[in-house]
Structure formats: C-alpha cells, structure tokens
Design goal:
The chain is of the alpha/beta class. It has eight helices and eleven strands. Strands 1, 2, 3, 4, 5, 6 and 9 form a seven-stranded mixed β-sheet that branches. It has a two-stranded antiparallel ribbon with strand order 7-8. It has a two-stranded antiparallel ribbon with strand order 10-11.
Length: 246
C-alpha cells in the first residue's frame, strides 16, 4: 500500500542516478555511470555488503538494476528469529531504455558492476533473472564476482492449493516490518503500488501497460541479501537506533 511505502522513505537518502529512467543503447558512447552521482552516496554505505539484481531485457522491455545493502539488524519481537531480521537500505535503482531501433548492451551492464567495484563498493553478490544472463554471469564469475540466476517470479505451493511468490513475499514482509529504507523515487513507488497478485497462481505482475523493472530489481537484491542473514546478523549492530546512527 502507499501508506506502507511512505513509512519506509528516508528523506536523507537520495538516488544517485540523476533520473529513474536513462536511455543508453549498444551503439552509443554512454555508460550507466555517466548518470550516477557518487556524491549522493554516504561514504559508510560503500563498506556495507552490497547486493545487486539485474532484471534483464534486450529491446522491448527496460532493464532494471537495483542495489541494496545490509545496514544492520532490527530487533524482532520473535526471539527465535532475531538473528535473521536484517535491516536494509536501498542504495540505487534505475531502468535502462534502449534508444529506438537499438538494443540494451549486456557489456554495459557488466561495465557498471566493474565501475562500482572500482569506486570502492563492497559488492557481495550479483543476481540476474533470465537465460539471457548466462553470458553476463560467466563474464562476471571469470572476474571473481559471485553471480547467480534468480527469478523474482518464482512461485511455490504452500498449504492447500495456495501459491506464493517467494521473493516478493519476503520483500513485502520487509516493507511492512519497516526493515528496509528507501529514497523517494517516483518510478519505484509507482511500480510497487501498482503490483498485483494473481490469487490463483500466486504470481506478482504489473497491470496492463504497466511495468515492474525497478521493482523486480529492488526485490531481487533484497531477497538475495536475505540469504546471507546468518553471516551478517551480528556484525552490524543489535538495534535500529545503532543502525540508523551509523
């Protein structure tokens, strides 16, 4: 809901991308980082474990890229689960649109990752969403990056004949439990609020003529970060006051 999204907005956070949607193709001289303002990233964020998800496309849809870091731990009311209740910050998000008649460059997707690493970001894992990502994954792994395929549309059957989309269910929980903070991004907020769940299949999708490229990217990055909960649960503070005071 819009109310839940508003409650996790942090006015101190800014999207380092100058626009939510940038136009970069396979035959121009532009790179994604040409639209990225490093001055909007707090220096301490670079040291935090950063997880990146790329929602791949070629020319018809837009490519979404989201980066989420683990900031610390927010204490839960459930004592048995406290070690896993991580607190996240959205670091960046963007949609890449190919110019008319051109395609998204997979090489530029990788170049952006290499550039982030060169700027000092602590990249822990990269996930991509489709068969188109195999080449990207191979290239990244060859350079020592931890890279995997992740479908944010993965649905599992639960009790009875009910189905849930696991990555989005986790992402939704982090929002309602206020365990993630985001900046005020018009595109991201619009995509999140417009998401619809098919009650029969459990699939999360956008309405007709809508999109969810950025939402998928942020969801994927958050879900991937959650998989390292045991590793980071006790390393970055024990309560929200300590975390947000970093």
């Amino acid at each position: 809901s819009g109310a839940a999204i508003n409650e996790i907005k942090n006015k101190e956070l800014k999207n380092p991308f100058v626009k939510d949607i940038i136009e970069v193709g396979d035959e121009d001289n532009l790179q994604y980082y040409d639209f990225f303002d490093l001055n909007k990233i707090p220096e301490e964020i670079k040291d935090k474990p950063l997880y990146i998800h790329i929602d791949m496309s070629i020319n018809k849809d837009m490519t979404g890229i989201g980066g989420v870091c683990i900031r610390g731990k927010k204490t839960s009311n459930n004592e048995l689960e406290q070690s896993r209740d991580l607190f996240y910050s959205l670091v960046f998000s963007v949609s890449i649109k190919a110019p008319k008649g051109r395609e998204i460059s997979f090489e530029k997707n990788r170049n952006f990752i290499y550039w982030l690493k060169a700027q000092g970001f602590n990249i822990k894992k990269i996930t991509t969403d489709s068969f188109q990502a195999y080449d990207t994954g191979q290239a990244l792994r060859a350079k020592g990056y931890d890279c995997e395929i992740l479908s944010v549309d993965r649905v599992e059957k639960v009790e009875g004949n009910n189905y849930i989309c696991v990555p989005y269910q986790y992402f939704k929980n982090t929002i309602y439990e206020k365990r993630i903070e985001i900046y005020d991004s018009k595109e991201l907020v619009s995509e999140l609020i417009d998401l619809e769940r098919n009650i029969n299949t459990g699939k999360i999708d956008h309405p007709d003529k809508g999109k969810k490229d950025i939402a998928d990217a942020v969801c994927g990055a958050t879900y991937t970060a959650s998989k390292d909960a045991a590793q980071y649960a006790y390393e970055y503070g024990e309560n929200l006051d300590m975390i947000t005071g970093l």
